Here is the input.
Amino acid sequence: MNENIYKVLIRCFTYNQSDFILDALNGFIMQKTKFPYLIAIVDDASTDGEQNVIQNYISENFNLNYSKDEEYAKITCAQHKDNLNCFIIFFALKFNHYKNKIGFKRVEYLKEWIEKSEYMAFCEGDDYWTDELKLQTQVEFLDAHREYMACFHNATIKWEGQNRPDEMMCDFKTGDFSTAKIFEKWQLPLASLLIRKEVDSSDSYKKLIAEFRGGFCHFIAASLIGKVYGFSNCWSVYRKNAGGISNSMSYGLCSFLNVRYAIASGDRDALEVMLKRIHFASIFVAYIKGDIYAKKLLSLVRKDRLFLLIKEFIQFVLVWLPKMVIKKLFRFIDRVLNRNLLLFLCIIIGLFGFNQLFPSVLKSYYEKTFTPLNVSDEVAFESLLRNNVYDVIDRESWSKHPLAGTGSLIKRLRSKVPVWEYGEYGLLLHYAFSYAKNKNDAALLALIKQKFDNALENEFRVKRSDQIAYGNVALDLFDMYHDDKYRTFATEISQMVKEAVQRDGLFLYREGSKEQHVDAIGLTVPFLVNYSKVFNDSVIYQVAYDMVNDYVKFGVDYLTGIPAQTYDLTTHVKLNHANWGRGISWFLLGTQEVELQNENEKKTFTNIRQCIAFKPKAFV
Here is the structure.
């Protein structure tokens, strides 16, 4: 066994994991590889019988090569009976190295075996591997890509002893990981990591491990000296329990370690990532309470980002501290007064304030906003409508509702919104174009073309699903003027849709969402259908068909024919309100473009459309 050269050394340090170590061992021996690999287990003098569990497992499943008794440990070497590529060396330490503050010795015991290997994999005694091709897949990748120093994969979190379902540890896509991106994800599963042994001997790793302990140093060091690749597949399990170290650390200690790691790595982008993740209000509160790690963290930030610390402190004093004081005051009042009495007083005060304030505000707003239409016949009404549409199209921005808005105070006070920001303007241009074309209204057609051409010259591009309605305008102009710039604009949108479908399986109103919105039907389907007709693109029509078909199936109440605002993509449960007038309009705008293929679906869809459009009493 001493003469063997192992492709991979699996490093497993364990202590008092007798309940879980068999899962780890089974995960090791089930690996199907084209190369020899060595399982190196170091038990740090467990007191729960774990060493006997491991020794018995080796006796039952391995052919013994040799064993020897050293001053510090009993060492056993063996080869698996069936998996001839699988070898094991077991160090049963005679005294606990961690408690005696010589934990680094455990790594030195493996030095001889590390030198005989090309790669190192890791797995703690309470974690385990679930995929038999994990090692083979990772080794093949690193063999084929010499510029990569490490690769890892996702893991499933198993909440041991808790009534809580398993969950995915991280949310990321397969691809490269920079140092900053590793810090952004932060808790990556150690049992997923495979590194070249050069990482372990690099100056970057030695610098980090001298200051810290933990497998995260390998992730960082690998990213500093080469490239790192992450597979999104979950090929291992990470056990977590309420008493674990990661769950027992204070917020101040976690943040302190994060920033220390980032500074030690020397990667400025990584430091920025860590600083953005700190909730400084909590750190300031912890500092006031005497948390030593909060104090250390603030000292670190003061040295490296003094201006940031000043800004966060000002925000804490002016925003967070008053909010906390008010919250404490309400809790005090809640304890002193009867809860029901307090609720009753709040309702009375609220009703009084609404009756006194809001009627006058709303009356003033609507009097300034809306003007009664004084028209005598259809011709006068059409003329008035056309002039108003012309005026709205000609504007560069729209007035914003004074009480609307989200985000900062500055954003809420802003009274104007660029017309190109939302897809409703695209719908207005599209249907105004159809009207102008039917009426031979040259002035209105010229205005629409001028506005759209100006937008293209200013490099306007569709970035969100609710802006896809602008694609209809491009198709209108292409049909009339045959200018390739309109074709290019529309084709870019279709490509964006196809790429999003490949990622999510269905084109969604918000990419990556777990829900589908009825807005997507009205704002995107008309363009998809029109594009498919103009350029004979059956793929893009199928996207539109799937969107409408799914919403008819899962998003519509068949008793009333009313579409819900959203539905859950997994459970198909309808969500949010269904009495939304604009949502019903979105549904009608999109569904009228698609011909459903199944006869039952056609009948259902026809009834729904008739119910919504022509039978409002059915809603009662």
Q: What stands out?
A: Residues 410 and 416 are 12 Å apart (CA to CA). Residues 242-249, 401-414, 615-620 have pLDDT under 50 and may be disordered.
